[in-house]
Amino acid sequence: MENRNYRIVFLRVVLSILMLTLIFRLFYIQVIKGDFYSQKAVEQKIRSFKILERRGEIYDRNMIPFTDREYKEYIFAIPKMLTDKEKAAKVISEIAAVDYEDVLKSLRSAKDYVKYEVKFNLNNKLPIGIFKLALPQRYSQNSLAKHVIGYIGDKKMGLEDAFDGILNSKREDSIAVFTDGNNTDYIKGLGVRLKTSGKEVLGVKTTLDYHIQKAVENVLDKNMVDGAAVVLDIKTGDILAMASRPNFDQNNIQAYLNSSNEEFINKAVSMYPPGSIFKIVVAAAALEYNKVNLQDTFYCSGSYDINGIVFHDYKGESHGVINMVKGFAVSCNTTFIKIGQITGAKNILEMARNFGIENDDGLPIPEQIGRLPKLSDTYGAGIGNLSIGQGDVLMTPLQAADIAATIANNGVRNVPRLVTAIVDEEGKEIEKLSQKKSYRVISEKNAKILKEMMREVVIDPEGTGKRAETTYGSAGKTGSAEVSKELNIYHAWFTGFVPFDKPKYAISIFVKNGDTGGTKAAPLFKEIAEEIMKY
Question: The pTM is what?
């Protein structure tokens, strides 16, 4: 009898445990994990169609995006959800301004969905199976810094190419459509929803300043410039703006593939003969190697013969007996050829390399590094071309701005940089990108002398850069690189800094085949400087 009672008690305990386990399990499934399993059940009855791949954005230094700035509205239709395809085709053709028969043909096809750009917004209620959605546009007509940002597609260019592995997140936005129990037909009453995969999207933070970039591009476009402009932060070496013209449409690359107008060439990092802006380097070498002092005088003769090769001042003008400061202000070629002879080609070439010419600074976009002649090519008349930035001397507008920035920064070169960090969507820096170490190029004393010389270019009554003066005080150097003596064609240059008393921005202007530097480039410097100083 006792054994029987024991078995009954035991069975009751076991049944109680099983019941409690079952109750707990049901509670766990329905309450604790209810949302999870409901979601899973729903997902089993959802079909998804990818409509967009999310790509990381490219930002300015203040996290203002250069990409995905504009949205465009589209109308989507899911043919299997439409009960009246003729009516749907009529609605779509009116909204998208497309042919009715073409739309109807698409709706009768086996496509999962069809998409058209919205041209007209009608107040009509859309039939079930049709909806509107605004999608980000990677590029637009008003996109800035196109030669820096580049583009993505069958071919790649710029930062889009350099950081493709980081920007290409593969996060997908999809249209989710509910299906029946057999997963064969769409449940029309439940409509559609948007789904986003949970993959992380990373972006690139540049040194560019969106507002400064816009101001620079506006000036170039207003003046219809064929050339480039660069703005550097003197204290950091950060590239705040880099613009090249002519421009191109990132959404229509095919239109330029057979063009000869150099739309794809980033002239800001392409090398050209610098002309007289190279006299900054010559003057720096003369001072730093103690070859010339400010009391030394030279005769600006209008022309100068070296071994039968005659070099001329602009229009053969002579300024008589002058020192290096005056010769720099009026850009006397004959004076600087004599200074070059005294200083020596070896010292000038070494100084040019210290300033960064022929150095690869490791920018993430293709950059030409400039070119200097071999020492053997500077013998005889070769020193003449070197001293006035002609012949085999080539540099980029970025390098020109870099030289001006180094002078303004009391002789210390901050190596230019373009990208500072990899960031997430909230702007948090995931990885900081290092900058090359700064170094001294010339002494602070000589940098101060050169700053004063660059100021004289702008304020001397005979100075070649008078048109670059601003209300903040400008300093710089003009350049007119001879392209064709017969046709009187020059590349126009101006490189300098602003304000003079407390330098903040270094700016270089290059105008291809654009007349003299004082006539064409100096006024552009003034416009840009006046505009960006507002910030």
Answer: 0.87
